[in-house]
Specification:
The structure is a single chain. This protein has three domains: 58 residues, OB fold (Dihydrolipoamide Acetyltransferase, E2P) (Beta Barrel); 199 residues, Rossmann fold (3-Layer(aba) Sandwich); 184 residues, OB fold (Dihydrolipoamide Acetyltransferase, E2P) (Beta Barrel). The longest helix is centred in the first third of the chain and has 18 residues. It is 26% helix and 29% strand. It contains ten helices and 23 strands. It has 492 residues and is α/β, with parallel strands linked by helices. Strand 18, helix 7 and strand 19 form a beta-alpha-beta unit.
Amino acid sequence: MPGIEKNKNYTLEITGMTHEGQGVGRIEGLAVFIDGALEGEQVEARIIKLNKTYAVGKLIAVLRPSPGRVEPFCSAYRRCGGCNLQHMDYTAQLAFKTKLVRDNLERIGGLKDVIVHETIGMKQPMNYRNKAQYPVAEVNGSVITGFYAARSHDVIDSEDCGIQDTESDKVRKIVRQFIVEKGIPVYNEATGKGLLRHIVTRVGFNTGEVMVVLVINGNKLPASDELVRRLLESGKTMEDTVTSTEAAMESSGTAAAGTARVGKAGEGLEAYGIKSFYLNINTESTNVILGRKNILLYGSKTITDMIGGYRFLISPHSFFQVNPVQTEVLYSKALEYAALTGTETVFDLYCGIGTISLFLSAKAGKVYGVEVVEEAISDARMNAELNGITNVEFVLGEAEKAVPELYRKGVRAEIVVLDPPRKGCEESLLLMLAEMRPKRIVYVSCNPATLARDLKYLEAQGFKVAEVQPVDMFPWTAHVECVTMLQRASNP
């Protein structure tokens, strides 16, 4: 590659962005991917990786900034691997995500005339996460609790996180102070030695209930009773205040400053409380955060939260959408696209703990929720019972196997809701749905690329993509969720 050298600086025009939020420019026709660069900018970048098909650059300077560029609100932003679009104005983020969905549908799915609505964002895109997982490490003799650096397992210390619920940060600080005082050793990934690995918190946004899970490389935590007492006492004295993160947002003029929790009736000090405290045992050499064994040291086995008027039980291992505000938006749109009249049989595939199933139950005749994770099915059944819902049946199994079995038993679905993992649906499942020919398919996706692939296949099998609604579940990141409505084409 004549003229292009590693460790040399170049001036580039950023002409696009990847699905991960990297800016894309070209040097002598070679694509260069640069973290922190925005479309329309002129930047100086140093080439840090070079091969035959592409290069990776490190942003050195922004020579001509985009109108959408803002100052990041987090002091750890440039090192942390969490949210990677803090340098982009929130309105610009929503536009980027809409374009990302449209581009994937056209490029991968060959779908050029599909209605893609503008991405639905948050009015207050701060402190929206109800689940936090803080790795614990010792660096230069000091205990730190924060987040992993981008593309590594180096822990970056951080006092406050602008996207986590403020209660999670409070718990983290109390636990860190406790382990420092007690001299409790923290886990070292390289040696496998040490005790405390992660601090995990789960917060009920609409109930104020908090679950604390300490992941340990052992079977017990010294002085755990004292830690529980400190956490309980903290709930009696803590006051919700506007964080320094919010103040930074407001002073910089960033769109939609503020948090999702502060100022809501029934939240904050009045509702705050540790309702559940667990030790999670993880003695394996693994990147998986939670081990299989949980020891309840205080309180109830679960906490509860509410979405759309429904109550949900949350355990340490439960899958529960981390942004409850936007989850209600997402699932309400799925219910709208299902267009139920009260008599239909509905399949909710990849149902998790039954959140969408319960939403659908209010307007369906019968809902079958299918999920391969046994704990999730157990939670789903408890959630149905908790809400007094009797027209939902939960089936344990892989969707691509459970649907044919239901079909053989004579169960036909007029409406199918799909909410698969990032890899999308198995082709065998899509083929089965084509054979069953439901009136509508509602596809909830967290990956526009696999969504586009699956939509292309379904269109080839006789369905028509009517419209797509992107929803911003993860502000300040490049992730976007979509709800798509497909209608069965007229009979051949």
